[in-house]
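Form 7-S
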Amino acid sequence: MTGSGAALQVDLRGPVGELRIRAAFEAQTGETTAIFGPSGSGKTTLLRAVAGLARLPGRLALGPDIWQDDRRGVFVPAHRRRIGFAFQEPALFDHLTVGGNLRYAERRSGAPESGPAVSFAEAVERLGLGQHLERMPRGLSGGERQRVSLARALLARPAALLLDEPLSGVHRTARAAILPWLRALGEASGVVTLYVSHDLGEVVDVAHRIAPISAGAVTGAAPAGQALDQLPKGDLLSRFEAGSVLTATVRFPLPALGLSELDLGGQRLRVPGTERPAGTEARLRVRARDVALATEAPTAISIRNVLRGSVIEVRDLPETPFAEVAVGFDDQRLVARITRDAATELGLEAGREVFALLKTVSFDDT
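Output:
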């Protein structure tokens, strides 16, 4: 899998049935951009248009390669675009074994055999397909078919990887291992990845940037933490689902407790689960409503996670009794939702030192 070293530029607008697509954004090389939104918002339609499997008016380009430019009369068909795609309903060759499907993707790629970012052996191992190589697709479960479809997309060595809910039928434990690997693979290869999902947990684990879509409209792709902070302003999440993404490093698992200890800029976090290997990156979504604040270090409490930081901003939420307080530590940002009354009583303002309290049970199990 070899990247193009250039961004994917998307500018598509047009009706599809009763829905009107209005998409203008860039997906950067070496990054995974998640197109995140509810069912019926146009996610799959948009991805199929990028793939060349459907057509919407506008322009598409991967760096210098123009895939579509209606003003110049250019439209490159899907089979001539350097893409790998895996859709929610896998389309495998039923007359070939699992191994045959994967080898076919390698042969069709036309890329040199030496030095791909992912090898046949790695794709098979990482996606748990070793015991299925001689099986026929019709005998596979839905989750197994999706893992084969994803492996086939990777082995095509694309410049752009288009994934539409590719793990929706895969067990949660397996997804927890696959998503960080996909993210790291894109970084190493320089490939542009578009990842369509309505699952916020998947988005947190895999995305560098998020392009929210609502009623067919996508107006840009922002860094994941920033995008999640802004989501409640739209209709993708209720106002009670605002939150932050924290990136930490796994110190070690604590199997006797069912927890893992993480390092967050020199501060300790304990979170549920023991499957994360030591030394690997963990990305955690924390809901703003699950964060409490104190102006003094608390003692004799059951909450295991206490992070020292400084207030970045205090933002009132109109027509509610609440305020959102952004707290910074290291180079990260955590948002807490508290009452305006509490914010006033604590004297919270930019620069004030605070302690953020996070219950271990409050972490989303992503």
